[in-house]
Design goal:
Blueprint: H1 11-24, H2 35-45, H3 78-81, H4 92-123, H5 127-173, H6 175-188, H7 193-217, H8 227-250, H9 257-280, H10 284-313
């Protein structure tokens, strides 16, 4: 209402309050003792919170009082309120990325070792050279994948540690600026300025570093990436994928080695394509066609090269 925005003191303010009360009560004059009643009426008419004389605006180091809200029946701590079987973890996306990386590692193991053993099988029917080539390809591929993943994730971890150190330094040197920055982040996400301020103060009081790392960088200081875990996961997924063509080329008789291996590899590629599509939400038919046709062409090329050069130099 306009009269609440009037900044003038004295009689003008009182007259405005009398007129406003008269409008609310149907023309009855307002006595001085009724002014508090008017203010109560205005409070009930408004959804906004009115400051009492003992209230003040929150400062950078203040922690707002928790609203006295009665808990619904059956609701306990925050941990108890999480539904069983539902994924509420903020790290779900990271876990899906790890799973996707494992699927891709297995796919690399399938394709690379299958191409190697099929190429050797095109040059010779002897089991010894095929076994040696397949084993060498499996070990070399696993080591290469693990080393590449270790280097890559180590660089990522170094970046995360540098960001964590910088955030600690900023919180130590300029806590007020950091609180204002956190407030602005939550305000940009859609919260009102007052609510964003309350959220920022509460989170800062609980764990300032974790609050800023999560809001600004999406990091959890307790769950930084591990190069060793990434390297091990990459190597294991490659080996698991490579074992399929390695076994398929050695177990059957010489005349059935290549056909059995090709069928097994294409079925495995179809499976990895299906899992990858489920994780990414893409189109299954297109992804499967791309992976299976690409794998079939790769096997055909390596078999042809092995047969050509094996005949020429054998």
């Amino acid at each position: 209402m306009q009269f609440l925005e009037d900044k003038e003191p004295g009689a003008t303010r009182a007259r405005d309050l009398d007129l406003a009360y008269a409008q609310l009560t149907g023309g009855k004059p307002a006595l001085p003792g009724l002014i508090p009643v008017l203010l109560l009426d205005l409070v009930h008419m408004s959804n906004d919170r009115t400051l009492t004389p003992g209230d003040r605006e929150l400062g950078p180091g203040d922690r707002p009082q928790q609203p006295n809200v009665e808990q619904p029946t059956g609701v306990g701590d925050a941990e108890d309120a999480v539904h069983d079987g539902e994924a509420h973890s903020e790290r779900l996306g990271a876990r899906l990325n790890w799973l996707r990386a494992g699927v891709l590692g297995a796919n690399d193991g399938i394709v690379s070792v299958a191409g190697l053993v099929v190429g050797v099988a095109g040059a010779t029917t002897a089991r010894g050279p095929i076994f040696t080539a397949g084993l060498a390809g499996l070990v070399a591929g696993a080591v290469s994948m693990a080393l590449g993943e270790y280097v890559s994730v180590s660089s990522q971890r170094d970046t995360e540690l540098a960001a964590l150190a910088q955030e600690r330094r900023e919180l130590r040197e300029a806590p007020d600026d950091e609180l204002a920055e956190l407030t602005a982040i939550y305000q940009a996400k859609g919260l009102s300025p007052d609510t964003a301020r309350v959220v920022a103060v509460e989170l800062t009081a609980h764990d300032a570093l974790a609050a800023h790392l999560d809001a600004e960088l999406g990091l959890d200081p307790e769950e930084l990436t591990s190069p060793w875990q990434a390297a091990a996961a990459s190597a294991v997924s490659f080996v698991l994928g490579a074992l399929l063509p390695f076994a398929a080329i050695l177990i059957p008789a010489a005349t059935w080695r290549v056909p059995v291996t090709v069928v097994a590899v294409l079925l495995a590629l179809a499976l990895t394509a299906t899992i990858s599509t489920r994780l990414s939400g893409g189109e299954l038919g297109r992804t499967m066609a791309r992976v299976v046709i690409g794998g079939a062409l790769g096997l055909a090329v390596t078999y042809g090269i092995g047969h050509l050069f094996g005949t020429a130099f054998g």
